[in-house]
Amino acid sequence: MCASLDAAHQAREKGLAACRRTIRASGTSIRAVHRGELDRARSLADDAESALREAQAALRPHPAVAFAGFLHDAEKEYSEARLTGALVGGDPLPDHGGLGVEVAAWLNGLAEAASELRRNVLDRMREGDLARAEVLVEVMDDVYGLLITVDYPDALTGGLRRTTDALRAVVERTRGDLTTTLLQSRLQQAIERDRPPAG
Prior knowledge:
By secondary structure, this protein is mainly alpha-helical. The chain has helices at 2-34, 38-59, 63-66, 70-89, 96-99, 103-127, 130-147, 154-157, 160-194. The chain has one domain (2-194): Methane Monooxygenase Hydroxylase, Chain G, domain 1 (Up-down Bundle). The longest helix is centred in the C-terminal third of the chain and has 35 residues, at 160-194. It starts with a helix and ends in a 5-residue tail after the last helix.
């Protein structure tokens, strides 16, 4: 009995450390995406994947430990990193099987990735690239439209309903910011067009 508990404890310690590395590398990868450093973001996401696989391997023989919550969090953060890079880069989205994570972690990672697009939209607006900002807002809306169709209990989806509600608020706020900026831009263009020539 003690040997079994010792093995579970050792697996927990190893898995927990690997999950922390996964989360740290995933967060740094997302920040690199926002800075436009897509190659570095991919490299950091690769580091996150290596740490995640280590955690999954350590915890696989101990399902009671694996489902304690921290592995789900690591899978969610890793999914968010990969999906944020794909959404910003306009690449196809890898599914949960392609990422090697549970469905619930993938869905929550997708919701978080869509929320992360707000920062990218604001950056595009500051740069005057309103066309790209509009595309990204539509991507956010598409993700929200997909997630609200997932109608399963929170126990199965890892609290997806709450995450989706948070995404809705982010989408609405971002669309409002973009609409205001578009109207200001059109007004400025109209003023400049109607201004009499100097001299």
